[in-house]
Each structure stands twice: as C-alpha cells, then as structure tokens.
Design a protein that fits this description.
- It contains eight helices and six strands; from the N terminus they run ααβααβββαββααα.
- It is α+β, with helices and mostly antiparallel strands.
- β5 and β6 form a beta hairpin.
- About 35% of the residues lie in helices and about 15% in strands.
- The chain has one domain.
- The strands form three sheets. A two-stranded antiparallel sheet has the order 1-2.
Amino acid sequence: MTQENCCTRCARAGKTCCQQTDIYVTMNDVRRIAAFMSRIDFFEYRSPSDPVYLGTDNDPLWQRHVFRLDGTRRVLKQHPSGDCIFLAGSGCLLELEVRPLICRLYPLAYTGGGIEAEPDERCPVRTLCNGQTITDIFGISMQQAQRWHMDLYHEIMHPEGGSTDENWTDLRPAV
C-alpha cells in the first residue's frame, strides 16, 4: 500500500492552497506560463481578497514591489468557485518548472530576508505529515527552495525590461 500524498490528505480535509487564494505572478512567471499554455488570458490585476493581507507589513520589499499604486497586483485568474484557473481534478495543469515561483515555494513561509523556519500558518501540513520536513514532503531540497526564493525577490524587484506593460507580442510561442 502506498502512502497517501500530503496534499491529497489536505484537499480531502477542505480548502487547499489552490483554492480561494490569490496567487501572485511575476512577469517571468507570466512569460513562462504563456509559452507553456500558448495563451496570455490567465492573469489579471486585483486587490487582495483577504483583507488581512493588506495589513501585513512584515515584508516591506514585497509591499513596495508587488502592489501597484491602486492597491492591485498581478494574480492568476480564478474560476467562479475560487479555484485557481490551472487547478484540475488531478492537480495543477502546470509542470513544476512552469508554475509561479510562489506556488513552488508554498508552504514555505518567507520574506525578503529569507525562508522562515516554520511553514506558512495557513497550511495544515504540520498536522497531516508528522515526522517529515517541508522539503521532504514536497520533494525539494532547501537549496532549490532558496534558489526559487532568490529568483522570486529578484523578479519582483527587477522586472524584465523595467516595464509593467503587459501588451507584449513576444509571448506567443514560436511556430
């Protein structure tokens, strides 16, 4: 008998991290997903759906570089149910290397200062997967997580070309 995946147990227990969660995407995330999906209609600008998120000031870099002046930020669209547009019955439609950096890092908690010792408080992983570390559960090394973290903060602080204009034409895959 195979051991049940931690995320499967989490999904059975209720809402997962792919449901009713605003998933921020960097410009490089958008480009990567657009190339993979051959479309660019999967993101939008929206204010946080959770008002608690607005009051968070533990990461000034995030606050300064992710939010636009009107309080919105670039996030993946959701189905009317609140599920991520890429969530299917079998899980995420995106391969790991294509997923947004914050999806790859979750449930690790982090700020601009680095990855924190405890997982994100919203993830019930502590009660579902006793005796394992977060990196064991999700099959990534801490070194890989640190690289993704560094990439994420580099991307939010230095968007490619310095432009926030999403009317690109270079996102269509080469034919």
